[in-house]
Design a protein that fits this description.
The chain is mostly helical. The protein contains 35 helices and two strands. It has a two-stranded antiparallel ribbon with strand order 1-2. The termini are far apart.
Length: 845
Amino acid sequence: MLFTNYRTSRNRADSIKLFLHDVVTPAARPRVSPYGDAKQRLAEPVTPNAIERYADLLAIVAGCILAVLPHVFAYDFGGALPRTRYWTAIAVAVVAVLALPSVYARRYAQSAVCLTIPAIAILVWLLSYCQTLPISPNLLAFLSPGSAAAYQEWIPEQIRHTPETQSSGTASSSANVADSSPASVCVAMTRSAMSTPVLFACVAFLSTFVLHGRHGILTWLSVNSLAGAIFAFIAVYDSLVIGASEFATPLITPDVFQAASFGSFVNKNNAALYLNLCLACTVALIYHQTVAHEVTQPSNNFRDRTPPPNQQLFERIAAAIPDLNASTVGLLAIAVFQFVAILLSNSRGGALAATAGLILVVLLGWGNRHRYYVITAVLAATFATFWILVFLGRDESTVDNMQSIFTLQSGSQVGRIDHWRDGITTAFAYAPFGSGLGTYRYAYLPYQDSNLGTWFLNADSMPIEWMVEGGVWLPVLVLTAIGFLFVQMRKIIRLDYPSHVRSMNLAAIFAVAATCVSQCFDFGILQPPNYLLIASVVGSVVGLSTRTAWKTTQHSYGTSQSQTVPNRRFQFACVAVVAAVLGVTWCDTLQVAKRDSATDYQMRLLSIQRHEDVNPNTLPWTQQKQAASQYIAVDPSLDEMIEQGGGTPHLKQSIAETLISQQVDRAIENIETHERSPDITIDHKLMNVEARRVFFFEMRRRDAAIPIPDALLPGQSELEIRIANQLAKSAMLDCPLNPANRQIILLTEFANEPDNDRLSNELVPQLIQLWGANTDVLKKITRIAGVSPGFDVAGPHILRSIQRDPRRSKIVLPLIQDARLREEILQAIQNRNETVASDLSASTI
């Protein structure tokens, strides 16, 4: 009975030794950390029963799915499509079913602290959901002045009080903006963006209970490292092939218009973050191999040698070379190639993130104990990286790309800095509650002051984007989560945890540091492959740092007698509450993700019907391409289409654009059916709705009583044009700052009886302010406004846009027939840009 408390020892001799140490010589016991001994806290003293073994087996399967899932989605265009979120939600449910038995059958406990990250993510979801709820105008003006202005000032009075149309599908799903409006300037986009914190919370929560064992952690790290190596090899091969010939066919790199793709990612910066996260896992494995090598070969370790003082550094570096085993050398090669891929992606933020992560890992992870290992590995990796770049012929371009970070004379960072100023101005306009999660692309438009001529979908800086979309509360919650993570990671560094735990902690340090740096220049954290990887490593580290055995021996070496064991019922209650909340939010996320996936699918089919170029790889699940003779019918099927797509404003906009586009096809089909002459010439420019609008206003100047059908060609539908107009107005109520809807209304308003000239007078200035920085858009606006409401109304706004950037006058001035306005434009730009003025004077004589 004397050794009852020492049954976990290997043999009786060890038990006797522990007994003598604890009982006979208690004064010699070392000082214990207030956290307790980490190795004892990670111990599992109770032998697992059959149920627990089956639960552990299911947890292993769940861990394998968590390891593979991000890399599967990485090859689906980097997770850029809505369908990826839908499949991510389903996969998370599968992992939850496999992992939850392990949660309730486990032999250890996590403190309630382990639920901090999921709780913060749930709070983000809850506050984002509050942004979608209608609130009174006075309260909205206090919480988000920019949102109040969007619904009260940017929606014309005629549209706000337009009665419901005959088609129920064209009615707005928003509340009456005259009574109450949400803080989100686009509720549909906020509802879609709310999936990110929910899925992040679910994966972090599950990883806390799944990724804890030695084999599970090392397997997870190995899968990510290997997947990153494969992706880096294919991405580098594609970049070399594309650089050699523009007609070459890459393996996985998509051909996306106006996008800098790398690998399977549509955006190179997102790909760089993905490679950084894989590199973090590779560095963690290198650390684990270093520690394992010390344990297996202690007598040959270079730290046991004492070379002469004058040769200490070089002797120790030389001694470290033979101590690098084959596994370490192989992992170093993988890390070098992953870093080369980051450099070849031309992502400046990605390169800075990798450098920051490596520096932080070296300082916090290895420290002085392994400094000569680190020096040897860094020197070898630097030489190998430079040699590979020279071999590939990309050394000069890479050096120039990195130098542009500091010179600010070339590259996208020049326009990015100008855009950041607009973003900061926008953040103050929507403070303190924000414009709504996921709405930056529209929120900043009324406050832009730069002449970049580009429509930014993101701020290219997540801190600024979070300040705009979340006001004060979102950046505060993000900083709180980051601070909490560094506290937990530092806790593992200070205490004597096993090598696999410290390796996972190093991966988390690298991943969090690289993410914090890169997201100051990018938005890759919003892509499923990236946030799944980050959530997994974060959840695992938090779980490991808070893990405690249910039953601990009071006299085991290294434990404190005052150490308390958590209340199991309380722990189960906390886990059950968080799991229930996550389940509710997951159901909502699945429903919204399914809607978004169906809407995106329908919109891509509509774009094919409009004869627009769509990458066929983005529609792998459909082979049918609708012919030009297939039209959208204005009947109950239109309402059904809108209802299946969730009635989102973007679907309404797409249907309206298709209804406008198909008028050309209807006219051509009518001509081909009734005209038998082979000499007839078809001019598409005379058949579109814009040309018929010009014809209508020209005829109305001669005869005010001209009916609408007389302005259309045979086969074209007045009803379809009116429905397109109503859909655009309904979409404007749901998304008031979207400039595309204003353009549709201007094109189709002539089909309404009577024509509303006052509405056009309001929409033209708004459209120029929101979208006028783009010269192509400004050209089309000038063409539309010149017909109606005329240059008397549009002229001052066009002149103001040209004064901000005189180069726009080369495109706009030939379209202006008003002599007075032309003279004002030439006079306004003469002092600012003499070259442009002289060119224009010569070209317009």
